[in-house]
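Q: I'm teaching a short session on how sequence maps to structure, and I want students to see two examples side by side rather than one. Could you give me a first protein with its sequence written out and its structure tokens following it? Keep the formatting plain so it prints cleanly on a handout.
A: Of course. Example one:
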Amino acid sequence: MASQDDNAAGMLQTLIDSFKSHVNERITSPFAGAFVIAWVLVNWKALLVLALSTRGIEDRLDYLSAHYFGQVDALWKPLGLALLGVIAYYLLATLFLALFECYGWLKRVVEQKFDQVRWVEPTTYIKLKASHARRVSDLTDLAADNQARYDKLLAELDAARGNQQKVSADLEESHEALSQSRADLGQSREKLAALNTRCDGLWRVVTKGRRKVEGAVERIDADHEALVDASMRLLTAMGYSPDNFTSENAIRYHASLALGPGTPPVLLDKGLVMKVATDVLVTARSQQRELGKSLAAWASHIAVDGREMEPDDTQIVAPTRFAPESHA
């Protein structure tokens, strides 16, 4: 049963396809198309009434049967217009075909006339053809050379544009570097001015410190001379010759002799005084050396830190002053 149903469905589909193809052939034929167009042109009022009227369908059909759909309007007028249209179509097609044929005939006649006028000898034609071929070859080579030159110039132009962009970038970087260098130069000038000002201040500080050191050295020398004079007077009073104690070592030596065993009390007292005076002299020399060291340390401290500072009383140690005449 299933196979019979499939066969029946296949036969029905074949009939439907055949009917569709037949209808398409009739509709697409020139006469059928002309008849349809003519029928619509003749009965367009009836179509509007049928499509757009507000009456019922039965009233519209009765109205159309009474006024429009007669044999003349429904068949004969569209058929006649279709025949006239088909005849006119073929007449126009024949007319256009005749015109094209006439145009072709006239073209051939004109070309023959021109061929007769332009006729040349075969040798001349061959020469002209060869010359034309050479000319075409030369122009082709020239065009190729010009194209190659154009491509080369275009490549050079692209390279020049690239170099221009690079030069522009380098120029901008140079401007930025120049601006930075100018700013750095201004800062360097300011720092140099500050350093010059600081150097001037340091020079004044060093000069002041040098003066203080020179004053301290002068005081130490004066105390040393006073101590030597006191020692000489003391040893002279003890009975020693001044030619034998011209140095500190001689002073220490004579002081030790004065403090030896069996020394009289008077000389013993004088020896003690001499020993004290000698110790004071050694202390003064030691203070002088410490003063030089403190001055050198202070100068190096200024050089390392770069700070402006003046030596105070703790940096420069003044020697202990005494009155040698009192010991005498």
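Q: Perfect. Now a second example for contrast.
A: Example two:
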Amino acid sequence: MLKVTKLFLFESCIKAMKSSENNDAYTKTLLSKGRQDSYVAGENSVYVIYGRNTKVNTEKKGEFSGAVLDAINFNYWKMWRNGVRETDTSLTYGDVKYLKSEIPQVDLDKCLEIKAENNRVIFTSGNYYGFHDSSGNFHALACACDMVGQPYSELLVNKANNISYRVGQFWNLLSWDGTYIGLYYSREEERKMLNDAGITEGFFSVEVGSQKCEYFYSNGRSGTSVLKERYDERYESMFTDTWDWWWLTEYEPGSVFKIGGKDYVLSEDRKLDVPYGVDIYDVQYPPRIKK
């Protein structure tokens, strides 16, 4: 009987040890998986240990002040570089979370008018610009990274607008090289946007950030916005002494050329006195000499 009792106690101790080992292994497994178990209580329970090893969520809900909206529209690439986290519904920057549903529209009062001064249209980085479309709807543009376009705050909430895009891209193209602008905009669209901005016929320039390009506003067949360098090359080839005047030998002295809406008479030595800055793409030619 005594032997049986000792054997029973020995087996009970072995089972208790195994149970303790299993509990320790289970605890380690839970910790490695980042899970918690409230089954075991006490100071050294898994629940307490898990709590000690878990970071407390310190995120605060942010309000969209003007400074925050400006940071999104003018310096979002810096926010990305510094670790902004974006989801479908929010932005988290540092320990502050902003809900996309609360992003405000750019205020009309913060927008500058797209208006030429001395035939120069200038978009300055860090500024908003606004315009109304043909239906009277207001559109805001933001200038950043040498580009002007729809504010990024609007794109974050899926409010991409084709009118805003086309107006912004129009000025971007002109600030880079508007040679092929006719592929994307009709002549009527081009003239309307130039005229709405107050650009008049003659030389003009468009600047977006550090990008700048100069043009001649023409009524001729070669396009409305003619690169100034192209104008200079054509003027030199047609009217300066550095080139021969072979093309004028096909006309009689006294022939009248209508250039830029004005009449110019061919001299006896077959030269035309056309001032620099006249629309030399808008030309009506007299009859040629019959051969």
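Q: What should students look for in example two?
A: Point them to this: The chain has a mean pLDDT of 82. Also worth mentioning: The first helix runs from residue 2 to 33.
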